[in-house]
């Protein structure tokens, strides 16, 4: 596989894995608090999202270390994906805007991701 293609695939796997995991967490919190469905019913529905998300994360980390030859770049990718995806999903589920500090953290996280990829 082309090294650039492998690096892009790593980023896609990690972002998708984190997105699915965070989606399951947020959906579970919202569904449990609003709909009052039985816990195990909510858990069973969302467990599949966590399983697929975890598999993507595992694949992303495995491919990422071989592609980048540096676990820190893979870790930064994972953390940055959380910094970007979680606020978006939080707003989508709860319609709450981030505070100033959270917005600054998001911006700094994105800048950190870019600097890790470039240097």
Task: Describe the 3D structure.
The protein has 119 residues and is mostly helical. It has one domain. It has four helices and no strands. It has helices at residues 3-34, 39-68, 71-94, 100-118. Helix 1 packs antiparallel against helix 2, helix 1 (3-34) packs parallel to helix 3 (71-94) and helix 3 (71-94) runs antiparallel to helix 4. The longest helix has 32 residues, at 3-34. The two termini are 23 Å apart. 21% of the residues are buried.
Provide tags for this entry.
single chain, 119 residues, mainly alpha, 4 helices, 0% strand, flat
Short description:
By secondary structure, the protein is mostly helical. 88% of the residues lie in helices and 0% in strands.
Major pleated sheet: none
Rg is: 16 Å
Give me the secondary-structure category.
mainly alpha
Low-confidence stretches: none
How confident is the prediction overall: mean pLDDT? 90
What would the principal axes of the Cα set say about the shape?
Answer: flat
The percent range for strand residues is: under 5%
Distance between the termini: 23 Å
Order of helices and strands: HHHH
Tally of structural domains:
1
Helix content: over 70%
> How many extended strands?
0
- Continuous helix count: 4
What's the layout of helices and strands?
Elements: H1 3-34, H2 39-68, H3 71-94, H4 100-118
Helix pairs in contact: 1-2, 1-3, 2-3, 3-4
